[in-house]
Amino acid sequence: MRAKAFGMLVVSAAFFLGVGCNTSKKDETTISIVNDAAYFESVKQFRVSTNVLFYSANSPLADSLKPHFEGINYFPVDTNYKVIANFEKITSATTFSFPTTGDIADKYRLMGKIHFTLKNKNCVLEVYLNEDAPADSKPTYFIPFYDLTNSVTTYGGGRFLDIPVITGNQTIIDFNMAYQPFCVYNHDFSCPIPPLKNKIEVAVMAGERL
Q: Which among 17, 11, 53 is positioned nearest to 170, based on CA atoms?
């Protein structure tokens, strides 16, 4: 069967990020993290909606997995994996295609790097824009990454994050929203393979797991 194009789970910033913003006199944005009841409820509802997709007629599950599917597995929500990151914008990058698990590859552009601290480790991840995303979809940035849970409690080929387009010098990275590529559930999908440079030396026990 011909490989299907990988469909990323795209969610709006209002749905999964608790963000409070204030504008200074220099028009710089200061971001703060809000972990209130509404945040936990939004993560819960996102996970419910993901499972609805997997049980639907449009499920990405392979037919062989459907009879035994009992829902996506997740780590418990842990706000220690929700952090503020500094954004280093890059404007000179050209488009390219990630290596993939199949024979279909979208075009991406490197938009910048995010710098953050997680579990007392300084981390850097590259951030990309999918230039082949549907024209009517909300633009988001794509962060494919590896961490120390891969091949232990998460997929060995890494996990993904989708975040709102970064317009300032900071953003919030919430690994509770990390997800595994559809090819984990169906080998017919063609999924981007994260670059080795996008590995953080932390066990990110948040988000989707095996």
A: 17
Which helix or strand (DSSP H or E) is residue 51 part of? helix 37-55
Residue of 90, 109, 106, 77 lying closest to 176 (CA atoms): 77
Give the CA distances from residue 76 to residues 34, 37, 189, in Å, rounded to whole numbers and listed in that order.
18, 15, 27
For 1-60, the pLDDT digits (tens) are: 334 444 444 433 333 433 333 333 344 558 999 999 999 999 999 999 999 999 999 999
Q: How many domains does the chain have?
A: 1
pLDDT, tens only, 137-196? 999 999 999 999 999 999 999 999 999 999 999 999 999 999 999 999 999 999 999 999
pLDDT at 30: 83
What's the residue count for the chain?
210
Number of Cβ atoms within 10 Å of the Cβ of 33? 15
Structure tokens at 81: 């994996």
pTM (2 d.p.):
0.87
Range of the domain at 126: 4-209
> Which tokens is 78 given?
């842990």
Show Cβ contacts of residue 9 under 8 Å, excluding neighbours closer than 6 positions.
Answer: 50, 162, 179
Say if residue 126 is exposed, middle or buried (CB neighbours under 10 Å; 0-12, 13-18, 19+): buried
